């Protein structure tokens, strides 16, 4: 991805150039994964702090790091989990029980192979990028359903069944919302989807595809099993759902997967509807204050990261604001509200393309 | 062409290694003192009195079947959406007929109560 010369030179001194390129790639991928895990760690802290503030509490404030109260909390949690016993229930299916956390974590991380961080800064610039993302999000279901089945616990089993039915129901709404994005972008390549939105904040997809944005984000919240759709782990009835019998680092892997998935859905919302790394001021001169070559008018990672904070905050906001849905309400919303809305909007969008209204002028 | 998929392969491999490393650190650093109580499935302190691989509601199965149909429809929609501006009004009307069949099926499910959950 990046032509990072110092490291490449060092590497090529002691291995052949044939292996230097994949090795350099591996080092970069490893660094991105570490960054992702760090973001996820601080996201858990942000969640507790923000929900604390919304509920007029202070949130975690005991573990200090750099003299900032609470900043060390994620690391304290990790160290606690490392030194916890990993229990494998006696009646469980041992192999599947150990395998399930990996099936949840690996696809969650691997989605980031096709996500562009800045123009042309993407690991795998593949033409089937969107299909790959859909495939990987679907893979996550296996981790959940295997965890629930392998544990041989009633709570875990119920949680897994609920979770699987809920995820497949919302995946349809999500898929239809993405069809609308494809109609606007005319490509499955993630980079091209972003390029197709260029031209300032009003030509991003959110404006013309607003109903699809709403459907996509709600489906994303349901796909990640987050409140208010967290019946899969509803702690007041089935304790922790599919991961009730996991402990220590085995639980931590599920936890990491869930939060990385939240970050991924935020990134995808930004990519599909808010122009990814595009600048909102692109093409707007603001009465000469902002020339075309100004830093704020340039696309870059800065914009991508800044925009991602919006959906990421919304995840926490939703959790702090709404009570949990009942399961029949969740299924009703998915099948009877979101899917019809997307179908109608696809028709509207098709007619708009035909009449060449909006950004679909060829 | 296939070369572009190499980073994905490396990504999958490294993600597995990372997960495995975390799991291994946890199992090495943590204690291991299992006993029968700890290893029984968690049921809020009650003893588990039956196997939990019980029969489950047929509606989950129904949802899975409807999902397969709709997911295939989405797979049909993808190439259509990408090439809509090439196929023009012909593509639009063709997909309208296709979507109409889909909506008829959805309405049928709806009226039959397949989407009810209470």
Protein architecture, described:
The complex is a heterodimer of chains A (362) and B (118). With 362 residues, chain A is an all-alpha fold. Chain A has twelve helices and two strands, in the order ααββαααααααααα. In chain A, a hairpin with a 2-residue loop joins strand 1 and strand 2. In chain A, helix 6 runs parallel beside helix 12 and helix 10 crosses helix 11 (301-321). Chain A is globular. Chain A starts with a helix and ends in a 7-residue tail after the last helix. The model of chain A has no long low-confidence stretch (mean pLDDT 83). The model of chain B has no long low-confidence stretch (mean pLDDT 81). With 118 residues, chain B is mainly α. Chain B is built from four helices and no strands. Helices cover 69% and strands 0% of the residues of chain B. The longest helix of chain B has 29 residues, at 84-112. In chain B, helix 3 (58-82) packs antiparallel against helix 4 (84-112).
Radius of gyration of chain A, taken over Cα atoms and rounded to an integer in Å: 22 Å
Q: Report helical residue fraction of chain B.
A: 55-70%
- Which structural class do the helices and strands of chain B define? mainly alpha
From N to C, what is the helix and strand string of chain B? Answer: HHHH
By secondary-structure content and strand pairing, the structural class of chain A works out as mainly alpha
Number of H/I helices of chain B: 4
Round the mean pLDDT of chain B to the nearest integer and report it: 81
Query: Unreliable runs of chain A, pLDDT <50, ≥5 residues?
Result: none
**Helix content, binned percent of chain A:** 55-70%
Q: Estimate what percentage of residues of chain A fall within beta strands.
A: under 5%
